Amino acid sequence: MASLPFSALSLFFSLCVLLVLPTHSLTCSTSQKFTNNKHYTNCTALPALKSYLHYTYNSSNSSLSVAFIASPAKPDGWTGWGINLNGTGMAGAQVILALKSSKGAPEVKTYNIISYGDIREERLSFDVWDLSAETNATSGEFTIYASVKLPEKVESFNHIWQVGAAVNNGKPVKHEFAAENKDAKATLELTTAQKTGKSATTTTPAGGNSTGNGTTSSSNTTTNGGNSGSYRIKEMNVGFCFAVFVLLASFIVF
């Protein structure tokens, strides 16, 4: 029986290595630069809506400086990030939104979400300063900049984020209610970030995941919330490659 060239077997092995590498996931990239030249101590790739949160926590005065990055659901839409000190979801949260204005550039507004049917544009109950927003002309992403005053000695807090498709008369139109939109909430652990200075943990509040999986977490380099499927694919690829590799090797031997 004709033998298979060793070079062909080597090529196949190289392709298998690519197959078993972890599938793509969101990461906090060093390419994410800010026009205000700010530098943030921590970054987490949030587990929903392809969003990122860069932030620095100052425990001496309980202040948090953030840069929230996300793309609107459509180019003329909006993005938002907020804090819920009394709950885990939208109801009761106080948010900062970047909305596409008539002039094209995003403008920043603050909203108090009393309930899902009662959303008020007003000042937040905690101090907020250095509010601004910008658009990345290439990616279409909005970046919201803000500094907020947190309760003293806070170790973690619940935060939410969201994206919408449209703005009507200067007001955000309701976002979609797909699973990913419903999953856009988590607990940010400040003590973890403060100890390491490099990484942070974002944990989905118990019961907050629509899939019923409990908690998920993400670091400054990976998002683990959706990796279970990736690992299953990886295991299938390993098994497939091993079986075919043995078969092809037998051609060389014989």
UniProtKB/TrEMBL annotation:
Report which superkingdom the organism of origin falls in: Eukaryota
Q: Where is this region: Disordered?
A: 192-225
**PANTHER family linked:** AUXIN-INDUCED IN ROOT CULTURES PROTEIN 12, CYTOCHROME B561 AND DOMON DOMAIN-CONTAINING PROTEIN
Name assigned to this protein: DOMON domain-containing protein
Q: Which PROSITE patterns match?
A: DOMON
Q: Among its keywords, does the record have Amino-acid biosynthesis?
A: no
Which Pfam families does the record associate with it?
A: DUF568
Keyword annotations for this protein?
A: Electron transport, Membrane, Signal, Transmembrane, Transmembrane helix, Transport
Q: Which organism is it from?
A: Populus trichocarpa (Western balsam poplar)
Q: Signal sequence: where? A: 1-25
Compartments where located = Membrane
Iron: is it a keyword of this entry?
no
Annotated TM spans: 236-253
Q: Which residues form the DOMON domain?
A: 49-164
Stretches with biased composition (Low complexity): 199-225
The GO cellular component terms are: membrane
